[in-house]
Backbone:
């Protein structure tokens, strides 16, 4: 019998790329799921159990989704593999009202992820690659399963963590930009600012950094290929530096 926790999505998940016996960014994934578990009153998994679940993931592909539930008060982990998304350029469509600043639960990676699934369905049905979740007053949140950032006014700008997930890809991108001497800002970002930006990036841990090239028919500026290459290389190095060895 499936537990109510699983049926109702009362759990957490992490999605990461695996390579050569390593879960890339794995230590940071463990830190995030542990932090969220403590914040939400769930038992956190041990490091060994987390690594073992990833290593035992069923299916095929180089990305693993590991889920945490606690139907009997003890952590239960399960994991499945899937194929990674390529970091290809993305065409985005706006879903207005799908981002709610201040909604604290969205700052955790909950297994009740229907907003992401349905958002992608709507975007693809309309001929786009992904959806950009925006508040009713035009404030940018995130994509359906990724963070967004833009180059504007000489700085790399990304929305503050205020009702959106603090993605590990987002954090690695900001660290990479600072290491390159770029100005980094985390603040509220208006949709109009994103459309007028010099370049827009979409980040996630398993996919890495992708460019957004369009928002609802508005052609976006493009990042210099050399800078994109440097940022991607730095993020990849970070993923290895914080990798978790699998049994």
Residues:
């Amino acid at each position: 019998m499936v537990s109510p926790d699983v049926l109702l999505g009362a759990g957490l998940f992490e999605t990461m790329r695996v390579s050569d016996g390593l879960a890339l960014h794995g230590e940071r994934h463990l830190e995030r799921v542990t932090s969220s578990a403590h914040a939400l009153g769930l038992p956190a998994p041990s490091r060994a159990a987390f690594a073992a679940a990833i290593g035992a993931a069923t299916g095929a592909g180089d990305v693993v989704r590991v889920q945490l539930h606690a139907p009997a008060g003890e952590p239960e982990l399960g994991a499945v593999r899937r194929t990674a998304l390529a970091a290809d350029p993305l065409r985005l469509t706006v879903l207005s009202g799908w981002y709610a600043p201040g909604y604290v639960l969205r700052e955790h990676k909950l297994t009740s992820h229907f907003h992401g699934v349905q958002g992608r369905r709507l975007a693809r049905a309309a001929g786009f690659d992904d959806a950009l979740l925006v508040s009713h007053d035009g404030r940018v949140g995130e994509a359906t399963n990724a963070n967004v950032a833009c180059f504007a006014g000489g700085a790399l700008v990304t929305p503050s963590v205020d009702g959106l997930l603090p993605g590990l890809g987002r954090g690695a991108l900001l660290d990479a930009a600072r290491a390159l001497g770029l100005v980094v800002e985390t603040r509220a970002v208006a949709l109009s600012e994103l459309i007028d930006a010099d370049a827009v990036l979409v980040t996630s841990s398993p996919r890495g950094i992708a460019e957004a090239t369009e928002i609802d028919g508005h052609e976006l500026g493009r990042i210099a290929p050399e800078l994109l290459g440097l940022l991607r290389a730095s993020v990849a190095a970070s993923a290895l530096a914080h990798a978790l060895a699998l049994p």
